[in-house]
Amino acid sequence: MMLARNRKMIVFLVTMFLVVVVDQVTKALVVALMEPGSSVTLIPHVISITYTRNTGAAFGLFAGSGQIVFWSALVVVVLMLFWFYRSHQQKNAWAFVALGLLIGGAVGNLVDRVFRGRVVDFFDLGWWPVFNVADLAIVAGVIMLIVVMVLEMTGRGAKEGVKPESE
Predict the structure, then answer these.
(1) Long-range contacts of 125-132 (CB under 8 A, 24+ apart)
(2) Report field, pTM of the whole predicted structure over 0.85
């Protein structure tokens, strides 16, 4: 039991660490190689790299509300860590990946707010607000956590994502 819990903790920490590192490295590359507002097309009509600076929340929501967004994100991270600590024994390994994505994404954007005063965004689909690796991780983490919770509620995720034998 202790070994399984330690593995889950390692999965969580590695996922969170990787998200923060990849997020910060990609942002540093964009800042070093591009001017704000400039854009490079990767695949025409599909995706570009467009350097924008976001003072709001994910996808440019609440622009100019940097302090409110910062403190809100910090509270969410602390609450998620508390929830994680209180319920980690009951959760399956996928919940740890989901939380690692969520918290890693939130931390990646918090690092930007602390050291840059705003968040660097760069993935540009043309039809969606410009976003970054942290935003992507947060959305993927939320989706994954919802799936895990639905599976747990229906009894399908009771044992490490494996269906119970009674089904």
Answers:
(1) 125/46, 125/47, 126/45, 126/47, 126/48, 128/59, 129/59, 129/60, 129/61, 130/50, 130/52, 130/54, 130/59, 130/60, 131/58, 131/59, 132/23, 132/26, 132/27, 132/108
(2) no
